[in-house]
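user: can you give me the structure for this one chain? tokens are fine.
assistant: on it. calling the predictor now.
[tool input]
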Amino acid sequence: MSGKATTHPGREKVNQLLKAVGSRAKEEETPVEATEYNWHEPHYFSQAQLLKLEDFARRLAAALANKFSGFCRDEFDVTVASTTQHFADAFLMPPSEGEPGDYYLPFGAGPEHICGLIGLPDETAIVWARQLLGDAESDKSSDKTLSQLEESLLLDLTSALVEGFSRSYASVELRPADRLVKGTWPIELTGVEELCKISFDVRQPGSEDTSKAYFLMTCEKLEPVVGTSTQPSAEFSVNDISRAILNHLQTMPVTVTAQLASTTLTFEEVMNLQVDDILLLDKKVDEPAALVIDGRTVCCGWPTRSVGKYAVTIAHATVEETI
């Protein structure tokens, strides 16, 4: 910079510079649209399959409502609360000390082919057992232990619900296990399996009390319900794939920046810049300008002009493999 006397900039000039820097940064901001994606959850089903799954869940809710009403001799509404996908490790952790575990009834094509279960939170199990005994208004505290009779009645009801699930499933007959399991996960899993959880709310018409239950099944075993993902029938060779990638890359736009040189100033020096000041850059006049792509210098050349515009005549490549 030329040798002018250094003066401290006034408040107005500082504000002007800060305003200019701030507005420039704001102008350069580009809103980014991103789709929310949770890597901790599987994405086994496509959007089309999820729509079919929701339709299956609604039909299943109607079937469960019929089973409930017939078994309890009273009207019940069953609605779908959610349909979600999970990795198996989300369910393999044992319940925390002091927390009651869920009741599980496994089911499958046979004892050696268990593929899913119906799960009842402890509070739901107690409420349903009391309803089956015709004692729905008794103590519903979750620290109560079900009697052998209550567990037997609950097994009969959940087995009937599995039967309703099996009829809606319609692929193979799904048979329930012969006993309920409390707190201990009843299916052998490694943790990486992809599971689908269909949660339901159960209540009597006009009542605000809602109990919850869920069916859990491997996503693979639900494919008869939602269909398999459509896969391309054509097979491509490695050369075909490489050629397609290269053809795509060759049409991609790349921004090339011609960088003459640079320098570093203090904030005070920037504030004192005036018209006709001279800034000394970090290159000699006989050094070429750099062509920069994605922050990397790939070529060097000499500044020139062409058809009334600034231009650079390529002198040599600095990184041979990038050319």
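assistant: here you go. The chain has two domains: 47-226, 250-323. The helical segments are 11-28, 47-72, 122-132, 148-169, 223-226, 238-250, 267-271.
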